[in-house]
Structures are given as structure tokens and as C-alpha cells.
Amino acid sequence: MRKTEEVFNSHPYCCYKKKGRLSVFVSVRQKQHSEMSLTAILSEIDGGDDKGAEKLLQKYNTENSHTFAFDHKEEDARIKLCQGLLTVLRRSDHPLCQSTCLETLRILSRDKRVLGPVATKEGILTLAGLARIHVAGHNVELLEEPQSAEEERVVVEALKCLCNVVFNSVPAQQVGTDVKLAEGLCAHLHMVSSSHHEVGLFSLRLLFLLSALRTDVRSMLRKEAGAVRLLTDILERTLDVQWVGPYEAMPPTPEALTISPENNELAMEALKALFNITMSDSSDEVRVTVLVEHQLFFKA
């Protein structure tokens, strides 16, 4: 045994495991700290101390911002935390507390095994309400467009959570279809101001995911929600397309500015969603119209 291995094996807080040439050091202290953190957070939530929970969650978020692999032994605790976070989100009206809880939920939603409490009608509607997406026929408070940076962060974090949950959970996809989340999202996109870039970006990304994962959603978006017109309008506005005729776009002038990185992101997300919605349409009229518009956009 090498001297280095002896040092690590003798350390009271570390375990040493060798697999081929790969040496993996697992800190027992870190595992214990993680377990204690989850227990402490759950204790604060159960006791109704949202302020105390918020402080612990901020620390948890900092420590786990780049965590994508989770300890299986803590799975039950993370499921309880998902449920606890939804409880706090329903009772708190403080933007900082809401965004902190949503950030934690976004981190947890990277693990598809703990999404049971979130991938429910109640969970999806809670997130939709915080994302300012109105779901028709459900008692979800329709909030106005965010006025402050703190309010906008809540909306963006809620949209990011929805993206993760929809991507990682088939039950969440079904719930989203049942409550017509995509239809509400289209109405939401009609009202999003260009000044709220991330709100528009993650709204389009969520629309892309819903249309990519559910064929029935694609059909609904095409026939009922007017999504093709919505997305082409977004593309025209984002790419600053100027029409000189029914089927002719004005070419850019030599002095024209290049597309900003923000508008480039929006255009890509809109095109991805538009492709999903139109790719299986058997209608020659719709297909030809979309192909012509795509060609005109590329020429512009």
C-alpha cells in the first residue's frame, strides 16, 4: 500500500475505495453534514419558521448549485423536502423566500426519483401560478407581470422548475396535458415584455419541451392555441424582419446590427418549438406556409 493510501485510510473521517486505477475518496463527514442539513431544513419548515428555513436553504443552494448526482440514502428526505417546499410556496408571499425555495426545488428536480410530490396536479398548478401562467378552469391566482427584479426571479425560477419537472417526469407531462399548461403558456407568451428576457426564454423552452414530449399537445397547439402564428410573430420581432410584400422580406442593410446573443437564444427556442408543432402536420397548406416562412426568415 502506498503511503498516500495509508494516510487516507487512517483518516477518521474518510473512506478510501480503489477501482482499477481510479481512486475515489468519500468523506463521511460530508455525508453526515448533508443529512443533518436536510433534517434541519425539514424541522424549520414543519415548525412554520419560513425565515429560518430560508437561511438554511440559501446555504444548501450554494453548496449544491452544481450537484447532479444525489445520494440514494437521502432519497426519502429529499422527497419530504420537495413536499415541504411546495407547502412553503403556497403560504409565503415574500419574493426572496419564494425564489430561494424554487431554486432548491430546481436543484432537487434534477433527480427524477424524488419528483412524486411535484408531479401532481397541485404541484404543477403551484408552479404555474408562480410562473404567472394562467391555467383556465383552475383556481390559480393570475398575477400581473413582474415589476421588480425579485418578482422576476420568482417567475424565472418557477419556469426553470417546470422545465426540469416536465423533462424528468412522465406523470408531470400528463398533468401538464390535463390542465392545458401549454395553452396557458401561449397566452403567457403573448403578454411577456421583451424587457424580461429570461421569462421569455424559459417560457419558450417549456413550450418546446411540452411539444416535444407529447404528440397530443402538438396537435392542440397547432389547431387551438394558434401557436404557429404566435411563434412566427416572436421570430419576426426577435429577428426584426421587415416585410415588403406578402411573401417577401426586406434584406438587411449593410449597416444592420448583428443579432444579439439574447435574441439569438429566443429565436432558437422559438424555431425548436415551431418545428415540433409543425413536423407532423398532414395539412399541405400549413406545411407549405411554414416552409415558406422559414425560407424567408433565413433569407432575411
Automatic annotation (TrEMBL):
Keywords noted in UniProt: Chaperone, Cytoplasm, Guanine-nucleotide releasing factor
Q: Which GO terms describe its molecular function?
A: G-protein alpha-subunit binding; guanyl-nucleotide exchange factor activity
Q: Name the job this protein performs.
A: Chaperone that specifically binds and folds nascent G alpha proteins prior to G protein heterotrimer formation. Also acts as a guanine nucleotide exchange factor (GEF) for G alpha proteins by stimulating exchange of bound GDP for free GTP.
Task: Write down what this protein is called.
Answer: Synembryn
What InterPro entries would the database entry show?
A: ARM-like (IPR011989), ARM-type_fold (IPR016024), Gua_nucleotide_exch_fac_Ric8 (IPR019318)
Quote a single Gene Ontology cellular component term. Answer: plasma membrane
From the Swiss-Prot or TrEMBL record, state where the protein is found: Cytoplasm
Q: How does it assemble?
A: Interacts with some GDP-bound G alpha proteins. Does not interact with G-alpha proteins when they are in complex with subunits beta and gamma.
Q: Which SUPFAM superfamilies match?
A: ARM repeat (SSF48371)
Pfam families linked:
Ric8
**In which family does this protein belong, per the annotation?**
Belongs to the synembryn family.
What species is given as this protein's source?
Answer: Cyprinus carpio
What does the record list as GO biological process? G protein-coupled receptor signaling pathway
